[in-house]
Amino acid sequence: MMPGEVFPMKIAFLGLGAMGYPMAANLSRNHEVTVWNRTPEVARRHAGEHGTTFADSLDQCATADVVISIVPTSAEVAELARIVTAAGLRSGVLWMDMTSGDPQTSRATAAGLEEKGIRFVDAPVTGGTPGAEAGTLTIMIGGSAEDFERAREICASMGTRIVHVGAIGAGHAVKAVNNAMLAANLWAAAEGLLSLKALGLDLEKALEVINSGSGRSNASENLLPSRIIGGEWPLTFKLALLDKDVRIAASMAHSQHLATPLIGLTSTLFTAALKELGAGADYMEVAKFVTSLNGERWPGEKSS
Amino acid sequence: MMPGEVFPMKIAFLGLGAMGYPMAANLSRNHEVTVWNRTPEVARRHAGEHGTTFADSLDQCATADVVISIVPTSAEVAELARIVTAAGLRSGVLWMDMTSGDPQTSRATAAGLEEKGIRFVDAPVTGGTPGAEAGTLTIMIGGSAEDFERAREICASMGTRIVHVGAIGAGHAVKAVNNAMLAANLWAAAEGLLSLKALGLDLEKALEVINSGSGRSNASENLLPSRIIGGEWPLTFKLALLDKDVRIAASMAHSQHLATPLIGLTSTLFTAALKELGAGADYMEVAKFVTSLNGERWPGEKSS
Amino acid sequence: MMPGEVFPMKIAFLGLGAMGYPMAANLSRNHEVTVWNRTPEVARRHAGEHGTTFADSLDQCATADVVISIVPTSAEVAELARIVTAAGLRSGVLWMDMTSGDPQTSRATAAGLEEKGIRFVDAPVTGGTPGAEAGTLTIMIGGSAEDFERAREICASMGTRIVHVGAIGAGHAVKAVNNAMLAANLWAAAEGLLSLKALGLDLEKALEVINSGSGRSNASENLLPSRIIGGEWPLTFKLALLDKDVRIAASMAHSQHLATPLIGLTSTLFTAALKELGAGADYMEVAKFVTSLNGERWPGEKSS
Amino acid sequence: MMPGEVFPMKIAFLGLGAMGYPMAANLSRNHEVTVWNRTPEVARRHAGEHGTTFADSLDQCATADVVISIVPTSAEVAELARIVTAAGLRSGVLWMDMTSGDPQTSRATAAGLEEKGIRFVDAPVTGGTPGAEAGTLTIMIGGSAEDFERAREICASMGTRIVHVGAIGAGHAVKAVNNAMLAANLWAAAEGLLSLKALGLDLEKALEVINSGSGRSNASENLLPSRIIGGEWPLTFKLALLDKDVRIAASMAHSQHLATPLIGLTSTLFTAALKELGAGADYMEVAKFVTSLNGERWPGEKSS
User: Fold this and answer.
1) Looking at the structure, do residues A124 and A201 belong to the same domain, yes or no?
2) Alpha helices, DSSP H only, in B61-169?
3) Residue B189 and residue B200: Cα distance in Å, rounded?
């Protein structure tokens, strides 16, 4: 907390998606929260349910002490920052961007805000909607040490593990790499299991062994079994969003002139899967793409 | 246990490597174990330390009720099977091959043994030397239901999770896929972390976040931190052996005419790493190959 | 020609596919040719059209001085060799296998024939059906120097460039590598042109430049333009056969423990394309798979 | 030629590298050419040898009717454009950028020039230093139809095939794709030939066959034989520059969200090769990287 900052703070919260909605609700227990959403109905409903203040225009967000954004991509954050600063956002305000964004665009947005004396941290999260609802997210923060301290106070209402990972953009970088690792682990597991399935093995038994063995990952332990065996394919996180994150990770390596063949190929494969499965698909459905490429089907895959 | 089988059984144990040595010791608590090793001194030492019977020739193994083999590759198992059956191994014996082998060679070996009335299961393990010593291995078994029951009795002295995964070769198939998943997870993590390191991030913090997040795997949680940050690179499992397993997984997909691009590329990368690092390298040193390809170095990597 | 061999020779020709049919016709101008085909009608027609002798059974081929096989895969060659030798093929006979086969199977077949005193060369061809009809094929031969000399005499009726590339299997190896290079060149060109098409460029102009430039290949000069621009997609060579050859090339590298990432990935991509396009597709239709994976279409691609 | 333009034109030529030097010489036969080079000695020598006018400052280039730039990357073109326009370059001037640049940066540079009324075409070349010296380059031009006509007149002094491939950036796009195809064709050929070499085949014979066959490419016909067999590895084109072009092609696909796995992997492999071989290496030396990754060596590779 900066000297002179007092609780509760005035926070403008931009973006009430599957994650933002419960995060803003948790935040409103400790702070005065004004909510804005591209589709205003959602913000109006949030105000009704959680006692937040409904903003039908971004102009109403310009009086906040802290602005939080959590939207699909960094391009939209840049646009929001342009509009809210034009509406008079004050010097000294902290802009916390919780989007899964890209480091490069964030650094440009931060530089633009800096000219108005507005501070920026990127603060993407992991933990899914359950973590967002329970207030137990992990939040990875990029920015100065001082801004991190301010952000930490606010994040305490939303998460339990709040980590300062580096300078501006570092939060986005870690999030992108985390998601690229998820993507690679998931795809590799699907390929391996497909190979066992094609040999006629019992996948449940195989997964039991692998998940007590060295090949296990979050993907093999917590994500794949209920889908490929159990046949449950809920929409939990859009493939289009994971594809975006893997592309950010691939771009980070490319722009640093690093040779990262496995993340590169993973990104290509996710792009092909996205085009086949469509923008509305859940990210776990890439496992269906791995089988369909091979004319196969998981036990837990309905005939289409 | 087959009708008429009595404990303790006469077991010939072939191969006293880092895994086989403690496994045979555990087995000898419940059974009469004769040990053979390519380098006889090791078998002689085992007999001295654990009260097993030293065999200086494979001929002495032909009177066993059960033969266990755990050697580098399936080619050596085939050779051992040829020699021991020529020495008079009786019909009804169970041959348990605990090597990390390949399904195709195992099926051929099993067919040869079958002609003499000898039963075969493949029963590779996971859990490392700590699991071998503690008798807490996971053992994945391929073979008939009946042979699995016999094998389970014996495995109870060596492991705690004993799973029947399918027909002959299925154990090897699951082991190969487990190790290919380990290889892919490990390599993808190394690429992602390299990318963060090159951006100047604190890898310890990044790993803390990832390991509480969705991108985590056994590789990122239990294997990478002590090496790339801690600077400890012990020899725990030869890269040459992991490379062999990944190649088996790639071959399984290839021979089934499956398109598995990520496992295919992982296998290629491990082969390149093996040629650069040498046959004596530990498998985790592939993380050093990922950096050296990019002219980088981990915090926990000494200058050479 | 061996001492004592006289022209015309008695040749059994096994396999009258798109290539074999005209090759046998050319051969029959200089030799006494007996033709056999899995579907006998084709052989009967060949006899009628070209004055060859129709064999309705492989037994009738056992009296030949030279056997030529040109069938889909080496597995079928092995089977043919087994049958014809069982029917009494004499010691000293030369078996010329003109199949696009795999070196490993060929070496095994040759070893089996060798036990009967039958000589073997692998002699796959390149030049397509136009070259087969005109008798201007390139023929790459693996075998001993002496056997090559015998084969060269016979090949002179079918091709104009007859090259001794190495020991048994070498012909198949070169053919597989040639086709893998074709596959990679073709796929890379399709990806590059897709990228230009998506930017809105005129592909005809782009190809004009590339084909006068350093990126040109047989694929970009002679194969792609009439398809992706001209819209002609004739069936000239089955994708299933090219996929087989690329797989042989990938296997050759794998079994030699070589890291060949680009050929490895090309093989994976062809396998995926084959599963999508079906066994009856022409090999050039992989260019359509490159676009369809990306929701695009070539100018010369009809809407389906 | 624009109405009112008269020959000879006043041309400022920026960048006298291996290509630019002879191109400017050819141009000076028909035009008044002022030459500038980052290292002024080269420009002074050019003036002495070819009767061009030496500019020791970019300010002296601001009076030209046409500016030609041919420098390592588009970033340097942007910087040159900024300086020369600041020095007073007039409205109506044509800026022809013959750099192997990237479309995105070129479009931004063109937009900046457009504000001053200066026209821009990208006009990269292919044909190497022999083509540059002989005036027989192929020149691929991106820009408006009108600007293309102006550029064509000038290009006639340097090349024989001058093609309008699309709007601004299209020339760079085609050049990048051409070079990515070269890179892929080259690498695939090296992998295939390595595989044959490891089998003990005669590479000269193998190349003879492939180059009369369907797998041939400019790389296999004109580039590889003299190196891998002949042992001549001259510096003709820096690997760093080819790597840059392949990276541009990969970026073009990435920014268009296209799945192009083969070009993606080729780019990764070239980056790894560049880091191993160093910035001064010739592009053909990637063939040595393919062997060294595998502990092999070409016949035409000296022991190091």
Assistant:
1) no
2) 74-86, 103-114, 128-134, 145-155
3) 17
C61 assigned to some structural domain: yes
Residues A199 and A69 in one domain: no
Domain that holds residue B127: 10-168
Domain count, chain A: 2
C113 and C190, same domain (yes or no)? no
| D25 shares a domain with D149 | yes
Interface of A with C (CB under 8 A): 261, 265, 272, 275-276, 293-295
Residue C191 sits in a domain whose CATH number is 1.10.1040.10
**Which residues in chain B have their CB less than 8 angstroms from residue C251's CB?**
254
Residue B301 falls inside a structural domain: no
CA-CA-CA-CA dihedral for C274, C276, C281, C285, to nearest 10: -90
Return the number of CB contacts < 8 Å for B and D.
14
Residues of D with CB under 8 A from a CB of A: 247, 250-251, 254, 257-261, 264-265, 267-269, 271-272, 275
The residue among D141, D168, D195 that closes a domain is D168
Disruptive mutation site among D260, D267, D293 for chain B (greatest number of B CBs within 10 Å): D293
pLDDT tens-digit series, residues B228-242: 999 999 999 999 999
Q: Are residues B137 and B205 in the same domain?
A: no
Q: Assign residue A120 the CATH number of its domain.
A: 3.40.50.720
Q: What is the dihedral of CA D22, D28, D32, D35, to 10 degrees?
A: 20
- List strand residue ranges (DSSP E) for chain A, in order: 10-14, 32-36, 53-54, 66-69, 94-97, 119-122, 125-126, 137-142, 159-166
Q: pLDDT (tens digit, 0 to 9) for every residue of chain C, 304 residues total?
A: 444 455 789 999 999 999 999 999 999 999 999 999 999 999 999 999 999 999 999 999 999 999 999 999 999 999 999 999 999 999 999 999 999 999 999 999 999 999 999 999 999 999 989 999 999 999 999 999 999 999 999 999 999 999 999 999 999 999 999 999 999 999 999 999 999 999 999 999 999 999 999 999 999 999 999 999 999 999 999 999 999 999 999 999 999 999 999 999 999 999 999 999 998 999 999 999 999 999 999 998 975 4
Nearest to D199 among C173, C213, C218 (CB): C173
Q: D130 Cβ partners below 8 Å, 6+ apart?
A: none
What angle separates helix D103-114 from helix D239-255, to the nearest 10 degrees? 80
Structure tokens at D245: 């072009």
pTM over 0.90: yes
| Mutation target among B246, B271, B276, B277 for the C interface, most CBs of C within 10 A | B271
- Cβ of D215 within 8 Å of Cβ of C180? The answer is yes
Residues of chain A contacting residue B216, judged by C-beta atoms under 8 Å apart: 181, 217-218
Please give the single-letter amino acid code of residue D108.
A
For the stretch B44-60, pLDDT in tens is 999 999 999 999 999 99
Tell me the three state secondary structure of residue B66. Answer: strand
Residue C125 falls inside a structural domain: yes
**Same domain? A226 vs A277:** yes
Among B168, B187, B204, the domain-final residue is B168
In this structure, the answer to whether residues D232 and D92 fall within a common structural domain is no
Q: Which residues contact D7 (CB under 8 A, 6 or more apart)?
A: D1, D30, D31
The verdict on D138 and D125 lying in the same domain is: yes
- Alpha-carbon gap, residue B102 to B108, rounded angstroms: 10
Cβ contact A251–D250 (<8 Å): no
Separation in Å, CA of A290 to nearest CA in chain B = 8
Q: Do the domain assignments include residue B5?
A: no
Please give the pLDDT value at position C8. 86
The nearest alpha carbon in chain A to C265 belongs to: A265
Q: Which residues of A24-34 are buried (b: 16+ CB within 10 A; e: fewer)?
A: bbbbbebbbbb
To the nearest whole Å, the CA of B257 is away from the closest chain D CA by 19
CA distance C28 to C33: 5
